Amino acid sequence: MTYDRTVPNIAVQPASLTPWRAVWRWTEFSLLFLLLPAVLAAAVDRNGHLHPFMRSVGLGWLVEIGATPGRLVFPVLLGTTVLIVVYLLLDRGFANTCLWGWRRARADLGRIVGLWAVAAILLLGLTALMAFRTPLLPETGFLRLPRERPDILVILWIVYPWLSAYPQEITHRVFFWHRYQVLFPKRAVLIVVNAMVFAWMHALFWNWVALVMTFIGGLLFAYTYDRTRSALAAGIEHGLYGAWCFTIGLGWFVFAGR
Questions:
Q1: Residue 127 buriedness (CB in 10 A; 0-12 / 13-18 / 19+)
Q2: How many domains does the chain have?
Q3: Which domain range does residue 128 map to?
């Protein structure tokens, strides 16, 4: 086992795998980060294009649950997060500090908040443009929560970072780096691939805006985790952008219900 000298006390994976281990690691990666999101997307598709196929392979029960997307999405997210955390804590080669990393998060907090403050203004203008100059977002969607349900907005800012953003950073950053960093030894490739699979997780919303939004967000969150090895740092950043998107109306594109 070697250590990354740029982030003290963080264990990293060996530089290479044996052929059979590499095959297994690629298979595991494909099942978890490519196939599973595709199955979830097929289950919640309101147009039902793949529902006959799903039923033919014994996954009709997923289709029934997916009729209410929130009933499927959130249990899967929280369930996989719990299983992954248990796995990581039992893996002696994993540095537990990556699950939190408060000191490293605090050291990067100024950059995270400063960049978000600038991006928040730009996103507000972009959302207004989408609502009033394009058919992508209804005009009523712009700033809908602050105008109509400020109570829900307050709850969302409190709950979303911990029940949605932080678990996603554990599954798609901490676990991804620990298991699959060895498959993508070049840092830039690792970050881009991670952003792609993070965006693909949002295919279940069945709109291209969600994919673009989450790919860009994925690049940012992946960069933050790569430089800090702190799920807390990436989770704070993810929580800020996610809650702001719901505040200004972009949550329209990534809303699963409830």
A1: buried
A2: 1
A3: 2-254
User: Token pair of 147, please?
Assistant: 């105008």
The count of other CB atoms within 10 Å of the CB of residue 77 is 18
The dihedral built from the CA positions of residue 192, 193, 197 and 200, taken in this order, carries a sign that is: positive
Between 13-27, 150-164, 203-217, the lowest mean confidence (pLDDT) is in 13-27
Torsion of CA 167, 169, 173, 179, to 10 degrees: -10
Helices 187-200 and 208-228 cross at an angle (nearest 10°) of 140
**pTM for the full predicted model:** 0.91
Of the pLDDT bands very low, low, confident and very high (cuts 50, 70, 90), residue 5 is very low
The pLDDT of residue 46 is above 90: no
Give dist(CA 12, CA 151) in Å, integer: 43
Count, in order, helices (H) and strands (E) of the chain. Answer: 13, 2
Rounded Cα distance, 83 and 69, in Å: 21
Contacts of 171 (CB under 8 A, 6+ apart): 77, 80, 81, 84
Please report, for residues 43, 118, 234, 237, 254, the alpha-carbon distance to residue 224 in angstroms, rounded to integers and kept in the order given: 32, 17, 6, 8, 22
Average pLDDT over residues 232-253: 97
Residue 189 corresponds to which tokens in the numbers above?
A: 């490739």
